């Protein structure tokens, strides 16, 4: 049994929480109350990138020793033409730098919430959660939580690959806002 | 009727040439003979990134006024851990800088050759060619050549989005060499 704490109760946090519960694992939703206890082995930061700094300020010390999952797409949402993180880095690596006592993973940022709920991308292929990070055990733990609910996960490589995952999330968002793909569709990984 | 000249006769050049011909357009294959005439309205550089510099040295002046399509994935193939172009740029933008009198597009780099031949990604979704570039007419011309053969194309945005297309191509190649996806599968764009 794994406990997953989710900070943020928007459509992504809700969809991820539903998957955790469907797999028979324990989910707890954490608000922004800095006094809230965080019991999860895995903590999902299910908020937008601009909110992450406040989350870390409120909860950072309690994240030590835990697997922390960054799901963000750090777009400049005014221009939809660039990311707000270093071109040779990623939001995930920035967050990892701020949480040196946590094991940070990148995941879920290439999945629209509706594809997590339906387990299908555009009705064409099963939803796959791409996971990047430098700790194989942490990636395997998250993959096991997903697998328990019948959701595929693929190890996308080291933390350096978060850059590519964020590029996919960025492009997918630009295509969706232009209505070139639907919010229940987008990039599917086929095998 | 559009004429497409293809430089390079590997599996990608062959697959692209087959699509051009299937759509009733004209295809010509160009070798590395610097004296060869190039008659195409569209010229596809269907070679690996390391070979592009020699192609431009041999044929560059003849590419003026033409739509030039870069299909490369500029990986460091020794490490499979990075690209060899600037992190905030792309191979396509580097090539565009060397061909100021041509209209450069990025396309095909997210498509494995087998998915161009079969028009299917992993048996799950139709193959989609993602095209990035700053000239809408050029993108529409390439899309029309593909559409004539029943191959979907999606305008992925400006030349700046070549960075994201190359990130997708990079990640897809790393997954394929690790046998996490097949060479007839990979990322499918669903709508």
UniProtKB/TrEMBL annotation, chains A, B:
Protein's UniProt keywords contain Repeat: no
Q: Which UniProt keywords apply?
A: Oxidoreductase
Gene3D superfamilies recorded: NAD(P)-binding Rossmann-like Domain
Question: Residue ranges of the Pyrroline-5-carboxylate reductase catalytic N-terminal domain?
Answer: 32-74
Its Gene Ontology molecular function terms?
A: oxidoreductase activity
Q: Which InterPro entries match?
A: NAD(P)-bd_dom_sf, P5C_Rdtase_cat_N, STEAP_metalloreductase
Q: PANTHER family from the xrefs?
A: DUDULIN-RELATED (PTHR14239), REDUCTASE (PTHR14239:SF10)
- What name does the UniProt record give this protein? Pyrroline-5-carboxylate reductase catalytic N-terminal domain-containing protein
The organism named in the record is Microterricola gilva
């Amino acid at each position: 049994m794994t406990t997953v704490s989710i900070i943020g109760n928007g459509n992504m946090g809700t969809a991820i929480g539903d998957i955790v519960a469907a797999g028979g694992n324990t989910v707890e939703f954490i608000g922004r109350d800095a006094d809230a206890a965080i019991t999860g082995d895995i903590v999902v930061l299910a908020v937008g990138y601009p909110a992450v700094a406040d989350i870390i300020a409120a909860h950072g010390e309690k994240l030590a020793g835990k697997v922390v999952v960054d799901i963000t797409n750090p777009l400049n949402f005014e221009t939809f033409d660039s990311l707000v993180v270093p071109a040779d880095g990623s939001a995930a690596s920035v967050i990892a730098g701020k949480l040196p006592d946590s094991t940070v993973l990148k995941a879920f940022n290439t999945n629209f919430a509706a594809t997590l709920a339906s387990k299908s991308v555009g009705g064409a292929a099963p939803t796959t959660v791409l996971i990047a990070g430098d700790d194989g055990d942490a990636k395997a733990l998250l993959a096991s939580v997903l697998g328990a609910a019948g959701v595929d996960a693929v190890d996308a490589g080291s933390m350096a690959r978060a850059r590519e995952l964020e590029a996919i999330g960025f492009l997918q968002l630009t295509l969706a806002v232009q209505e070139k793909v639907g919010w229940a569709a987008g990039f599917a990984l086929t095998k």
